[in-house]
Write a structure and sequence with these properties.
heterodimer, A: mainly alpha, 13 helices, B: 586 residues, alpha/beta, six-stranded mixed beta sheet, 40% helix
Chain lengths: 318, 586
């Protein structure tokens, strides 16, 4: 058979050893700092401008919320004069006045802490409930999963804005930051629980979990030490974004008139009060809306970049 | 094929022109750390009707070379330089459109994993017909369908007309690979590239598929280029061999010549470390000792003892002879496991299995996927409860052991699993991972634990500096060493090795096998070695239990099973070790 013949250009060839030096089999190459998922993600984040922009905005918003006095000396409520109603910018009042004649700039600055507090409290609530329900349901399975997941489904089936509207209407006598946060958070956690449950179901079948079981490590400790840390990344992403939606939810409720009382400084309240004058004095509505959008956007952007950094597949694509 | 050459006319011009010629091919990948050259100056020539195998470990650039030929480089890969001449046409410069007409029609491709390369939502018939239509071989519904049946029959699916409407999940792995081979050959291409076409399949299926592929390409006159990590397989199936290492060709030429007289030290390493070759050599020379002698002085010296499998086997044979008369460490009696499957009744995964393992020896549990061998391991580790039967470890029946007794028993019996990437928690550093068993079992103080971790790292030949690092920085072999270190932390008597070396490259695999042999000698360990690969068994095990469909069909010493197999199934498994037709060392 001609094909099995070796042609002249197919003779036994051996590469010179200098060209292909042998290295030790499976030698250890560990230089620089130790890295794991979190350090890699951090290294990745540091290179992204989007991360720095959103982080800077968030830091700024937090500083404004904590120290409004650094940014304005004008009190947001006491100094209002109806003579200035819907007035334009003047000396010392760079953004003009609301319908009530209050300083818009000052109201935006002082409203920041409300929005941020609601966001943080809701996120905390969502994280605690979501992680507890998701982790136990996913890890222990069986009837525990059935019970916890059905409870989650019940809360999931009610839109959380609708639920919050109902709760706030019933509790109209107790409208404050804590109550509104509770009203939003109580119905917003099932999404987090579901994401975590799915992730835990994936991780709990890993060999390292089996190895730990074979070592005699207790179930609960396996959950805390091995399973949860490896499942938490998507929860971090989802909570960052839920912080943004909680701020929106507060504004929505206040806009609908079932949120915080008008005496509490809040972007939602201001937007609500400005709606009647949209045509004559659009800045009274647009300016607090911009503050709201920028804050929400910076949290969403942060969530996006963190997700990209934590997802090795997304990293490989670039 | 056009060049059916008759005996008197062997030197036609057509025959003398190479079908495929790769000249100085360079392929690179863009990564965050800059460009990485994966293939660096590869030259190869392939004539019509020949078969050529590219052999190398993972990361050697063998698959990248194959993918470059049909321009299917993944992600950021691109050709940096050189020529790929197919019948004179330079594929490295070809446009997308030109490539589309080359793929399928001139070059067929059989991918590695039959499980993921068929679209689960379309029927087999639809997918084969799609391939046929795309290559314009037939037009019109009837014609296309006729050709699809023809193609599948040719690939060895005899009831093809009946199975066209079925979906991929109704096909076994071997059947799917036949379908993919059929699709690859649908347009009667001149060249067929097969990328590890059988490494995802059971060994016996692997052999049947390769036999079929070989006869089919011979019949059609198709030129075959295939990629494999198994040197024995490559030498048996291909006339020409190309050995790649770190993106370069280190040795190439006629397979026999390379195998009998490997020149490059890397090739020598591969020859020494390939389990299929080692087991064939031991078999053909009659004993481990004779095999070691036949290897000659120089081969072992160049390759290094650590990866010379025959040296490993010999080292083991000496120690274990003394251990054979020892009392059993594990006794398994009439072990049965029944899984309840919703809607399908009961499934007996393990059916009346009995065996004993003498202390300080290795028993291999061999079987193909679904034979129940891993379920036995899980029951032994008490990760799964037996339906009936007894497992006695250290004089105690596992079924009655609970609570603190079980906790204590766990420290005497430890597993090492197959997947080196899944068996370590990626978020814990190496030191903490190895120390976890010590912490769990309240061993010593912080300082003594630290000392023990260092000692264990020494034992598995890893530097102590690794203690502060994370698994993602380690290779598969190194991770497997860490898993072994963790398993050894509590000084157990028994290790359950569930396919512990199957996922590793041959050289690394040989190293780990040597490590396991050394540890056994040093610590008097008892191994239950679970594997699908009989070739490895020849080197590492004293006794063999062959499992099929939940039952042990044959159990004897390794020598007996290899020399005088009684069951047909065992004979099939033995025949499936590549290299049966190779003459080695005798």
């Amino acid at each position: 058979m001609p094909s099995s013949r070796t042609r002249p250009d197919q003779q036994h060839y051996v590469a010179p050893i200098e060209e292909t030096p042998l290295v030790a089999i499976d030698s250890v190459k560990a230089e620089g700092k130790p890295t794991n998922l979190w350090t890699d993600a951090w290294r990745d984040l540091r290179k992204r401008p989007m991360f720095w922009i959103s982080a800077a905005l968030i830091v700024f918003v937090v500083i404004v919320a904590l120290f409004p006095g650094w940014f304005t000396q004008t009190p947001p409520n006491n100094d209002c004069q109806l003579a200035n109603s819907n007035g334009g910018p003047t000396e010392g009042h760079p953004l003009g006045f609301t319908k009530q004649g209050c300083d818009i700039y000052s109201r935006i600055i002082h409203g920041t802490s409300t929005s941020l507090s609601v966001g943080l409290i809701v996120t905390f609530l969502v994280a605690v409930l979501g992680i507890a329900f998701g982790a136990f349901a996913g890890f222990y399975g069986g009837w525990i999963d059935s019970v916890l997941s059905r409870i989650g489904d019940i809360f999931f089936s009610i839109p959380y804005i609708l639920a919050a509207v109902v709760i706030m209407s019933v509790l109209s006598a107790y409208r404050n930051v804590w109550v509104i946060s509770l009203a939003i958070g109580l119905f917003a956690w099932p999404a987090t629980a579901r994401v975590l449950r799915a992730e835990i179901l994936r991780v709990k079948n890993s060999d390292f979990v089996m190895a730990a079981t074979a070592l005699g490590v207790s179930r609960f400790r396996i959950l805390l030490r091995h399973v949860l840390p490896n499942s938490i990344a998507p929860v971090i992403v989802i909570t960052t974004i839920s912080l943004a939606s909680a701020i929106v939810a507060e504004a929505t409720l206040s806009f609908l008139g079932v949120g915080l009382p008008s005496t509490t400084m809040s972007w939602g309240n201001d937007i609500s009060q400005a709606q009647t004058d949209l045509r004559t004095a659009p800045q009274t509505l647009i300016l607090p809306s911009i503050a709201l959008s920028v804050t929400v956007l910076s949290f969403i952007m942060l969530g996006e970049v963190v997700r990209d950094a934590l997802d090795p597949k997304a990293r490989a694509r670039r | 094929m056009t060049d059916t050459v008759n005996a008197t006319n062997t030197h036609t011009a057509d025959d003398e022109r190479p079908l495929l010629q790769i000249k100085d091919l360079r392929v690179g990948f863009k990564t965050q750390e800059g460009d990485v050259t994966a293939v660096d100056g590869v030259n190869l020539t392939l004539y019509r009707g020949q078969s050529l195998a590219i052999v190398g470990e993972s990361g050697s650039g063998k698959s990248t070379t194959a993918h470059a030929i049909i321009n299917l480089l993944p992600g950021s890969g691109r050709i940096l330089g050189g020529q790929i001449l197919l019948d004179g046409q330079d594929l490295a410069q070809a446009s997308k459109k030109e490539m589309e007409s080359v793929r399928g029609r001139k070059i067929g491709f059989v991918p590695q994993d039959p499980m993921s390369n068929l679209n689960p939502v379309w029927s087999i018939g639809f997918q084969v017909e799609e391939a046929i239509r795309a290559n314009g071989i037939a037009t019109g519904r009837k014609e296309v369908k006729k050709r699809a049946v023809e193609v599948l029959k040719q690939a060895g699916l005899h009831d093809a007309d009946r199975r066209l409407k079925q979906f991929p999940h109704q096909f076994s792995g071997g059947m799917r690979q036949r379908v993919l081979i059929g699709m690859g050959l649908a347009a009667d291409p001149q060249l067929l590239i097969a990328d590890e076409p059988t490494s995802a399949l059971d060994v016996t299926v692997q052999r049947v598929i390769l036999d079929h592929l070989e006869s089919l390409t011979r019949e059609l006159g198709t030129t075959l280029l295939f990629i494999t990590h198994d040197l024995g397989l490559a030498a048996e199936r291909a006339e020409q061999l190309v050995v790649m290492y770190k993106g370069k060709i280190v040795e190439s030429g006629p397979s026999r010549q390379i195998l009998e007289n490997p020149q490059h030290p890397y090739t020598q390493r591969l020859v020494a470390a390939a389990p299929s070759l080692a087991s064939r050599r031991i078999q053909s020379t009659g004993s481990v000792h004779a095999a070691e002698q036949s290897m000659g002085e120089d081969a072992g010296a160049v390759a290094g003892d650590a990866i010379d499998l025959i040296a490993t086997a010999e080292a083991r044979a000496e120690i274990v002879e003394a251990a054979a008369s020892k009392p059993p460490a594990i006794v398994v009696e009439h072990l049965t496991k029944v899984f309840k499957i919703r809607g399908a009744g009961d499934f007996k995964a393990v059916d009346d299995v009995s065996f004993q393992i003498p202390k300080g020896t290795t028993t291999a549990l061999v079987g193909e996927s679904g034979s129940g061998k891993s379920t036995v391991a899980k029951m032994l580790l008490k990760l799964e409860n037996a339906t009936s039967g007894k497992i006695i470890v250290g004089g105690k029946d596992l079924a009655s052991v609970t609570g603190s007794e079980l906790f204590e028993l766990r420290s005497r019996m430890q597993p090492v699993f197959q997947d080196p990437y899944g068996s370590l928690n990626p978020l814990r550093n190496i030191g903490n991972t190895i120390a976890e068993p010590l912490m769990t079992h309240n061993y010593g103080t912080r300082a003594t634990r630290r000392e023990r971790v260092f000692e264990l790292l020494d034992q598995v030949s890893l530097p102590r500096t690794l203690a502060g690092r994370y698994p993602n920085e380690l290779s598969g072999g190194q991770r497997q060493r860490i898993a072994i270190a963790r398993a050894l932390a509590l000084k157990p008597e028994i290790l359950v090795l569930d396919e512990a070396v199957s996922a590793l490259d041959v050289l690394v695999q040989a190293q780990i096998l040597r490590l396991l042999a050394d540890l056994q000698a040093e610590l008097d360990l008892t191994y239950l070695f679970i594997t699908h690969d009989l070739a490895v068994v020849r080197v590492i095990a004293d006794q063999v239990c062959v499992m099929q469909k939940g039952k042990i069909v044959e159990a004897a010493t390794t020598d007996e099973v290899f020399d005088r197999p009684r069951e047909q199934y065992t004979k099939d498994l033995l025949a499936a070790i590549p290299g049966a037709n190779l003459k080695l060392g005798a």
